[in-house]
Amino acid sequence: MRPYTALTIAGSDSGGGAGIQADIKTMEEWQVYGMSVLTSLTAQNTMGVQEVHHVPVPFLTAQLKSIEEDLPVDAIKTGMISSKEAARTVGEWIGARRKPYVCDPVMVTASGHPLMEEETREALSEYLFPHADVVTPNIPEAETLLGMSIKTEADMEEAAGLFVEKLGSRGALIKGGHLEGEAVDVLYDGEIMRTYREARIKTDNTHGTGCTYASAIAANLARGRTLPAAVEKSKHFITEAIRHSFDLGSGSGPTNHWAGRIGEIK
């Protein structure tokens, strides 16, 4: 019997805390075999991003072809997409697969380094969002994509609805990590608005949080769980990953991808 599988299409983090490194670590923690297609390479550590090299689109296409010719894909997660042409290429490929798909619209790093061209933001809604079972923006990303201010849970609910009604995704998870109080996320699946709450963990070690969270959702979808169940389990997972995060490096340390073993949360 083959294992569950998930494919991450995203950038690489040489520091290991975010990007495809975090994605595959997370997928493996959920006993899902992780595969990767690289969109960009970053020279990156806990202090920030020093340099970025975007993979040429023909090589991006070659990676996708290699996967489709040999390996089964149960779910897909995308992260850093650097250009409009890359978004079109990835979107067309995902659209032809019809697999559960989690879109993490990565725009800037935690240290403030931009990872996406201006025109690519519009390309996301044109080429990627229509195929996504769920889009997982944090509040600054949602504000940028929707052109609105998000200050309250009611604003988060409005934003989640707009991702479905205006930008074309089938679902949206607005992550409330940038607000005060409890760590509250809002999920809209096109029919029901749901709220997920966990205690806020006070730490600077949150590098790779978005990548890890989205990959956990993709892994759970690969295992056949519904979107609300996948988000519920992943929300608890990322909370424990932050709770047990590392003081590693001189900047924002990584979350702990072994958190499932510590908390036995599966």
Care to describe what's here?
The chain is α/β, with parallel strands linked by helices and 266 residues long. It is globular. It is 40% helix and 21% strand. The longest helix is centred in the last third of the chain and has 17 residues, at 227-243.
Q: What is the overall shape?
A: globular
Low-pLDDT regions:
none
Number of strands: 9
Q: Overall mean pLDDT score?
A: 92
Distance N to C terminus: 21 Å
The helix/strand series, from N terminus to C terminus, equals EHEEHEHEHEHHEEEHHH
Which structural class do you get from the secondary structure elements? alpha/beta
The profile of the biggest β sheet is:
6 strands, mixed
Residues in helices, as a percent range: 40-55%
What is the overall number of helices? Answer: 9
Which percent range describes the beta-strand content? 15-25%
Physical arrangement of strands within the biggest beta sheet: 3-2-1-4-5-6
Radius of gyration: 17 Å
Give a quick set of tags describing it.
alpha/beta, single chain, globular
Task: Write the SSE topology.
Layout: E1 4-13, H1 19-29, E2 32-45, E3 48-54, H2 57-70, E4 76-78, H3 84-97, E5 101-103, H4 118-128, E6 134-135, H5 139-146, H6 153-165, E7 172-175, E8 183-188, E9 193-198, H7 209-222, H8 227-243, H9 259-263
TL;DR of this structure?
Helix content is 40%, strand content 21%. The chain is globular.
